Amino acid sequence: MRNLFIAIFCAAIVLLHISAAGIFFKSERIPNITLALVIGLVFILGFEKSFVWIVIAGLLLDAVSGRIFGTSALILALIGWAISALSTAVNFRSRRLLFLPVLFLLSAGLAFVFDISEGTIIRASGAWFNVQGGVSGINYFSGDYVLKISYTAFFAFIMYYLAARLNKFLSVWR
Amino acid sequence: MKFSLKKNSRLITAISLLIVLIFISARGADNPLKGFLLRIESPFLKTFRIFSGGAEGFFHFLGSIGELKSENEKLLQKNRELLAKNALLKDIESENKLLRQELGLLPRKNYDLEASFVIAQDPQGLGNYLLIDKGDKNGLKAGMPVIISNGILAGKITEVFPTNAKVALISDKNSAVNAEIEDSGAKGIARGVYGLGLMMDMISQSEVVKEGDTVITSGLGGDMPRGLYVGKIKEAGQSADKLFQQASIISPVDFSSLRVVFVVKGF
Fold it and tell me: Where are the alpha helices (DSSP H) in chain A?
């Protein structure tokens, strides 16, 4: 039952990202809400417990995106592992006042890393298999891109909060 | 930070499987799995999209209440002007019909159109494509043009699934449409530029290209009907190799806010 609630939560967030985000945000500024979800899940549930959901969220995203199937799932899984490893080493959450700005900067940085990684995988696949990757150029220095990663970082706060509430609900519900 | 192979065996296995999946997908063999996932996702995507559209409209309404009264007065005045123009336009319409027949332009109402809801767009926000709620079961095929109701070209279908289809927008960098400047007849190719705009390329140096010229589809190649509106010329110049002219095009369409599109199944 716990897994069902987590599955519904993850699926709803990913589907909202795919279908609704484009209505509320200008297309160059759409935040990576799925990445924010992964950040929230890893911090609250831990990487081990959220790993399956991270991969499923990535595959759901890939099914709709024009990217090579599996790209987002791979990158999100690696980002999730990296957050978990870093969090174990540094233990962010114990530093109360510092945690929020660290979360913001970390999320913004990971959004940038996600885009760079995605472009790299697709260009590499294009070079090896001579296929069109379907990724247009991103101007990483434009105001729109800065806003995009800022919105992603902001959504990381929301996802962190929602994941914490969900975890509390599930622990009480049991 | 020690990396333990035993502890991370599940991660390593999953990463390996995902890499294999990427290799297989890059070869184009991922359609059955993608189609299956899309089939599950699309009813929810459609629902979320419709409700989000309503919510966005509601917030937009709240924000614009103050402007509504003055806008209402302006619209009443405009309505009176339009009634007078309408009488004049009825004459022009019949003349247009005659000229279209003479030029071999198809009347727009002769298109076999399939109306479709837009249920998702590029989640990375690069504005390249849309996902619609019709697919192979509705007779859609890759390559079919997609328009907005009044004959403005939006894009072309690139991938078809049983109940969905992916539409590459004309602003996609891989998009290329045979185009023509309506007044001068200058031919060229309208290409997408990094998902955000359009450029008309390969225009002969001897042709006259001016700001404000209307660009339509030329119908050359037979993959698209002639006469679909593409946009207006913004700025003309030389191509990088100086062999042709190039011009930027402004499309009137806000691709991010599309709700309904029409697939041209036959023309």
Answer: 2-19, 21-24, 33-45, 47-64, 71-90, 96-129, 143-173
Residue B210, exposed/middle/buried by CB under 10 A (0-12, 13-18, 19+)?
exposed
Question: Is residue A97 over pLDDT 80?
Answer: no
- A72, B37 Cβ separation under 8 angstroms: no
The answer as to whether B121 is a domain residue is yes
Domain count, chain B: 1
Does the pLDDT value for residue A133 go beyond 50?
no
Residue of B50, B122, B128, B166 to mutate, interface with A, max A Cβ within 10 Å = B122
Q: Which of A60, A74, A89 sits opposite B19 (nearest CB)?
A: A74
pLDDT for B38: 82
Chain A environment of B46 (Cβ under 8 Å): 19
Establish if B103 belongs to a structural domain.
Answer: no
pLDDT digits (tens, 9 = 90+) for B199-209: 998 888 888 88
Residues B110-159 have pLDDT tens digits of: 778 888 988 888 777 666 788 999 999 999 999 999 998 668 889 999 98
Count of beta carbons in the 10 Å neighbourhood of residue B227: 21
Domain contains B34: no
Closest of B246, B241, B238, B250 to residue B201, by C-alpha:
B246
HSE-up of residue B11 (Cα within 13 Å, Cβ side): 22
CB B226 within 8 A of CB B217: yes
The fraction of chain A above a pLDDT of 70, given in percent, is: 87
Q: Does B193 fall in a domain?
A: yes
Q: Which two tokens stand for residue B144?
A: 């079919």
Domain that holds residue B180: 113-267
Whether residue A66 and residue B129 make contact (CB cut-off 8 A), yes or no, is yes
- B194 by Cβ neighbours in 10 Å (0-12 / 13-18 / 19+) ranks as middle
Q: Is residue B1 pLDDT above 50, yes or no?
A: no
Q: What CATH number is associated with residue B252?
A: 2.40.10.340
Residue type, A151: Y
Q: How far is B160 from chain A (nearest CA, A)?
A: 12
Element (H, E) at B76: helix B31-103
